[in-house]
Design goal:
The protein is built from 13 helices and ten strands. It is an alpha/beta fold. Strands 1, 2, 3, 4, 5, 6, 7, 8, 9 and 10 form a ten-stranded parallel beta sheet that branches. Residues 1-13 and 353-377 have low confidence and may be disordered. Its EC number is 2.8.1.6. InterPro entries: Aldolase_TIM, BATS_dom, Biotin_synth/BioAB, Biotin_synthase, Elp3/MiaA/NifB-like_rSAM, rSAM, rSAM_sf.
Length: 377
């Protein structure tokens, strides 16, 4: 039962979610001194989340390459020659085997991605089986399949899909420089179908495509000012793949990524903000700052869709160093067992790294319980 005081604090918390962010305000956040920005982001983060918990997702490409879209960043577009091996839709059983492996490695959400403009009707029954099978394993499900019609979104919702990922990618102004085969409005329509079907929205973008600071602000404004903010906001750093038009794009400064994460945290206080593609190229120190800025979700496992990601042992070592523990899933069922499995994995990793020359915050009993909601900010 929810207590009156927690209902009151929920109401206060919801009142703090704004959908009227302006460009000036957001640019002012970006221009704050770094320490002030991170301090504000931490205050917001601690109002809604345990700062020492992280959500772990694993990605799988269930249909690879030969995509008809021309997204300039993407190794899977059929418009560019990136040498990628094309693969048709994976068999359901193979997908479930990969999900089981991801679960055993500690992931609580399994994200399945397909290089489609939109899912073909003939493949929808297999997609439904994948969602049902992954849920039966006790994992949360996420799919990213391109544009969806309203009826396709309803079919996915009916199958039990938890999240649908569909990124706005960049600001409305910069978008046309990156993709010409579908519009910003098309993307917003898909997000509306997902929301209307009752599926949680995962939507974010990419840094490092040649966009300006105004465009980064514009992306975050487009996300935060949606009628309901996305539950999950992936921020990708461009993975520069040879053969794509953006192969020589300028490298993203790690501290600029941290700033963007902090601004996203302040603007979307209740959303999970995920450090998605691009962690492979960043130091542990920058990743630690990103967690301080309010990043509370990552992709775990040595591959994203087609490009590399830090392997899970390195990630667990980093999380151990920082005293950050994986979050348990909230699916109905035996959640406690799931939480214990994940935490055991971290403990095992910690023990195997027992000689490592760093301070072990978990062993020192520094992992805290979820804090009470704060009234400040
Ligand atoms: N085809 C579907 C779509 O575009 O919606 C789903 C898969 S697509 C690969 C999912 C997202 O991955 C894209 O929206 C983009 O934000 C991200 N992405 C793709 N290639 C990337 C790259 N090279 N670097 C960073 N992010 C990338
Ligand atoms: C998202 O925002 N990032 C993920 C997920 N959503 C599907 C994809 C990243 C892809 C990076 C390039 C690749 O591995 O092909
Ligand atoms: Fe296709 Fe998605 Fe890649 Fe665009 S991002 S080319 S839609 S797979």
């Amino acid at each position: 039962m929810i207590s009156a005081s927690s209902q009151q604090s929920d109401a206060r918390a919801d009142a703090a979610i704004r959908h009227d962010w302006t460009q000036e305000e957001v640019l002012a956040l970006f221009q704050l001194p770094f320490n002030d920005l991170l301090f504000r982001a931490q205050l917001v983060h601690r109002q809604y989340f345990d700062p020492n918990k992280i959500q772990l997702s694993t990605l799988l490409s269930i249909k690879t390459g030969a995509c008809p879209e021309d997204c300039k960043y993407c190794p899977q577009s059929g418009h560019y020659n990136t040498g990628l091996k094309k693969e048709k839709l994976m068999a359901v059983q193979k997908v479930l085997e990969a999900a089981k492996k991801a679960k055993d490695a500690g992931a609580t959400r399994f994200c399945m991605g397909a290089a489609w403009r939109n899912p073909p009707e003939k493949d929808m029954p297999y997609i439904v089986e994948m969602i049902e099978g992954v849920r039966d394993l006790g994992m949360e499900t996420c799919m990213t399949l391109g544009m969806l019609s309203g009826s396709q979104a309803s079919i996915l919702a009916e199958a039990g899909l938890d999240y649908y990922n569909h990124n706005l990618d960049t600001s409305p102004d910069f978008y046309g420089n990156i993709i010409t085969t579908r519009t910003y409005a098309d993307r917003l329509t898909t997000l509306a179908h997902v929301r209307d079907a009752g599926i949680k929205v995962c939507s974010g973008g990419i840094l490092g495509m040649g966009e300006s600071l105004q465009d980064r602000a514009g992306l975050l404004i487009a996300l935060a000012n949606l009628p309901k903010q996305p539950e999950s906001v992936p921020i990708n750093i461009l993975v520069r793949v040879p053969g794509t038009p953006l192969e020589s794009a300028r490298e993203v400064d790690g501290l600029d990524f941290v700033r963007t994460a902090a601004v996203a945290r302040i603007m979307m206080p209740k959303s999970y903000v995920r450090f998605s593609a691009g962690r492979e190229s960043l130091s542990e120190e920058i990743q630690a700052l990103a967690f301080l800025a309010g990043i509370n979700s990552i992709f775990m496992g040595c591959k994203l869709l087609t490009t590399p990601n830090p392997d899970e042992d390195h990630d667990f070592q980093l999380l151990n160093k920082l005293g950050i523990a994986p979050e348990a899933v909230t699916l109905p069922g035996d959640d406690l067992v799931k939480e214990q499995t994940v935490i055991q994995k971290v403990i095992d990793n910690r023990e195997s790294a027992a000689d490592a020359p760093y301070y072990d915050a978990i062993a020192a009993g520094r992992v805290t319980e979820k804090p009470e909601m704060q009234d400040t900010l």
